[in-house]
Amino acid sequence: MRLFRSPFRFPPIGGRTLLPALAGASLFLSGLTTAGAATPPLQTAYTSQRVMNAVSVSDDGRVFVSFPYWGGGDTPGPAVAELDHDGSPRPYPDEKWNDWARTHDSDHAFVRVNAIRFGPDGRLWVVDSGEANVGGSPNPPEGAKAKLVVINIATGQVERTISLAAASTPHTYIDDLRFHGSTLFLTDAGDPGLVVVDMKTGQQRRVLEHARSTTDERPMYAEGHLLISNGRPARVHADQLEVSPDGTKLYFQPSSGPMWVAPTAALEDAGLSPDALEKQVRFFYDTPTTGGTAIDGDGNLYVSDTNRLRILRITPAGQATTLVADRRLVWADAMWIAHDGSLWIPAVQLNRTATFERDGKSHLQLPVAIYRMDLHLRPVR
C-alpha cells in the first residue's frame, strides 16, 4: 500500500532531510543541546502502571493528569485524577465523574478524555472526545458527543459543560484546546479542521476543513518505525496547537507535521470566506512526527520528536535546536510549563499500544513516566 505522502515540499530540519532514527541509538544523550551546552537533566516526577497522556500543574503546585482510553494496562482507574504527594491518583473531581462505564450518564461523566489544561481563568478544562475513534469507522450516531468540562479546583465542583455536538461531524475526534480571550480554539484529529468557539455567544464554527494545514498527508514515525493503525499508515489530523504570548498568532499542525501559523483575528472573523482564511495561513516549520507541544512566555515552542526521542525548541523566528534527547522520551505527549518555569513531559508510549502495533498487541514497557526539567521558563496561559 502506498504511504501517505504530502504533495507539498517543505524545507528540511537543520539543513538535512528528516529520516527515521534507530530506536535506542547511542545518539540519545540526556542533557545535551545541539550546541553541546549543558541543560538541566530529566527528573522523574511520577510513574504509573496506566498511561498518563497529559499533565497540568496549578499555580499552588497541585498536579492533575488524564488517562486516555487507549492506554491499556491491567489496572482500572479514573479518566482524570489529582496526584497525591506519593503519586497515588485520586479520581477528580469525584468518582461519579469517572464512572461512565457504569452510569452511562455522558452529561455528568467523562467518556474518553483526551486533554486537560488550566485556562487563563484558573479553571481546569477537560477535553472529552465522547464515543469517538480517530481514524476508524464513523462515530455512532447515538453515541456520546464531545464536550468540554470546566472545573473550579478551589471548590472541586464542575462549573460548566460545553457540548461540541454543533461543531462535530461523523468522523470528529476533538483532540485539544487553547484559549484566546473569549475564544476557544480546538483541533479535530479525526475529520481535519479547527473548531472555533465564541464563549460569549456560544457560536461554534469549523474552519480550515480538509485544508493542507490541518490534514495529515505524510507518514508518521516513532522510534524508527512507520506508525500503523488498522493495518494502514496511521493518520492523525489537526492535533497540536499553541497561541503566541501576545495572542496574535495560532500555531497548529497535524501530528505528522509540518507546523503552520495563522492570525487569530482571521480565525475569529466569522465573515471571512474559507478561501480568504486559507490565504492567511503560512508555513512555519517542518516539524517531525509530534506527540505534544508547549509554548513559553517568550514565544519559544517546545515540540516533541517521537522518532528521534527528543524535544525541539523552536524560536518565533523558526530557528530550532534540540533541548534534550533521551531514550526515555518515548512519545512525549502534552507538555506543560508550570508556574515555577519547569517543563513537564509525559512520556506515554502511544506508539507501543495495541492500536499502533502491527501485531495488534500492546508492547508498553510499564511503568510510564512524567518527567520534568527545571528550565526557569516564563509560563503563559
Structure description:
By secondary structure, the protein is mostly beta strands. Helices cover 4% and strands 34% of the residues. It has helices spanning 100-103, 264-268, 274-278, and strands spanning 43-48, 54-57, 63-66, 80-83, 89-91, 113-118, 124-128, 147-152, 157-163, 174-180, 183-188, 193-198, 204-207, 221-222, 225-226, 228-229, 232-233, 238-243, 249-254, 259-263, 282-285, 293-295, 301-305, 310-314, 320-325, 336-337, 342-347, 368-374. It is globular.
Give a brief outline of the structure.
This protein is mostly beta strands and 381 residues long. The chain is built from 3 helices and 28 strands.
Provide the fold topology.
Elements: E1 43-48, E2 54-57, E3 63-66, E4 80-83, E5 89-91, H1 100-103, E6 113-118, E7 124-128, E8 147-152, E9 157-163, E10 174-180, E11 183-188, E12 193-198, E13 204-207, E14 221-222, E15 225-226, E16 228-229, E17 232-233, E18 238-243, E19 249-254, E20 259-263, H2 264-268, H3 274-278, E21 282-285, E22 293-295, E23 301-305, E24 310-314, E25 320-325, E26 336-337, E27 342-347, E28 368-374
Antiparallel strand pairs: 1-28, 2-3, 3-4, 4-5, 6-7, 7-8, 8-9, 10-11, 11-12, 12-13, 14-15, 16-17, 18-19, 19-20, 20-21, 22-23, 23-24, 24-25, 26-27, 27-28
